[in-house]
Amino acid sequence: MGLPYSSRTLLSYGKVREVAQACDQAKADAVIFVASLTERQQRVLTAMLGRPAVSLSDILAAD
After folding, report:
1. Cβ neighbours of residue 16 under 8 Å, at least 6 residues apart?
2. Cβ neighbours, 10 Å, residue 54
3. Tens digits of residue pLDDT in 8-54
4. Secondary structure class of 30 (helix, strand, coil)
5. What's the rounded Cα separation, in Å, for the pair 22 and 9?
6. Residue 41 to residue 53: CA distance in whole angstroms
7. DSSP 8-state class, residue 54
8. Helices within the chain (DSSP H only)
9. Distance separating alpha carbons of residues 26 and 43, to the nearest angstrom
10. Whole-angstrom Cα distance, residue 22 to residue 7?
11. Using CA atoms, how far apart are residues 36 and 14, in angstroms rounded to an integer?
12. How many CA atoms lie less than 13 Å away from 39 in the CB half-sphere?
């Protein structure tokens, strides 16, 4: 069994690596999470993924 999710990232470290790899393959400009992210989670995920990490609620609120 893998390590539990991290409150810093909302995901396990391995899952963050998987997402980063998928984003690289897809040449994604950003990663959108359905779950709400704290500002800290956004900062950490953006740094780990190498592209902006945003929550869907933030996008919808901007409209």
Report:
1. 9, 45, 48, 49
2. 17
3. 888 988 999 999 999 999 999 999 999 999 999 999 999 999 999 99
4. coil
5. 17
6. 9
7. E
8. 13-26, 39-49, 56-62
9. 22
10. 22
11. 20
12. 0
Q: 51 is written with which tokens?
A: 């592209």
* C-beta of residue 51 within 8 angstroms of C-beta of residue 25: no
Question: Angle 13-26/39-49 helices, nearest 10 degrees?
Answer: 60
Q: Which two tokens stand for residue 6?
A: 């991290």
5 against 47, higher pLDDT: 47
* 42, two tokens: 């956004």
**Alpha-carbon gap, residue 20 to 14, rounded angstroms:** 10
Return the DSSP state at 26: H
